[in-house]
Target: 2-oxoglutarate-Fe(II)-dependent oxygenase superfamily protein
Amino acid sequence: MSAPNGEITAPLPVIARLRGQGFVRYRPPFATTCPERDYVQLRAAFDDMPADPYALGSNRFRRYSRLVYLPWRDELSWIPDVPDPVFGAVAEYWQDGHNPDFVGRRRWFPALCTALRENALLLRLVRANIEQVLWHEEMERSPIYVGVHLIKLSVADPTALAVSSPNCLHQDGGATMFTFAHLVAAENFVGGENVIATPGCVGRTPEEVPPGQVLARFRLTEPLDSYAVHDSHVSHYVSPVRMGGGAAVGSRSVVIMGIAPMGPQL
Model:
């Protein structure tokens, strides 16, 4: 179970909490033992992040690439990106009608670089996340699609905000969708509060939700602090980020992975 602030109050496996209540806040067991060089490389990937090309001025920066996993062969493979004259390579991202900011709109985001695709920590997170969803019956007989987002909310102006999309409680992709979020780095920021609520709260801000429908509130603060949601069971949200009291740029860097079975297209 989790307390109202999202803290883990019983040592149940991640899978049990994810299946039982539709969300879990946790730290991967390898968070404190992974090689420093792998973490440093992953963190450095956020240093030169391009601005979100669909939301210039939002102080949101991102990269995105995709993998496919074959559970019957334990085989993981990156899906080829598309050459792009501006970003070098891009990957397609589509949320159907789940994002009110981009309903039915296909977007193309700058892709992860080749070196990062080989990062042992990132690949370990991918495989660990896949392991948490293999209990779902549709994951056993379909290729599994994994979308890997690197998202940084970053502000250098004390009067500015960095905003996620959508800026409301939402779901990401339907009944068989799982979303995992892993904090990589955070510096001199306030905000960035995660809120988990019931599914009926989609489209509302946390302030518009009756207290009994808010299931958890928490902030990810340490490297690899994580949470996961089963999309059909809950809605989720992260509040805007602004600079803290120091002089440094305020930033919050997160790896987000969406995992779902690939459906037939013919």
Observations:
- The mean pLDDT is 88.
- The chain has five helices and 15 strands.
- The longest helix spans residues 120-131.
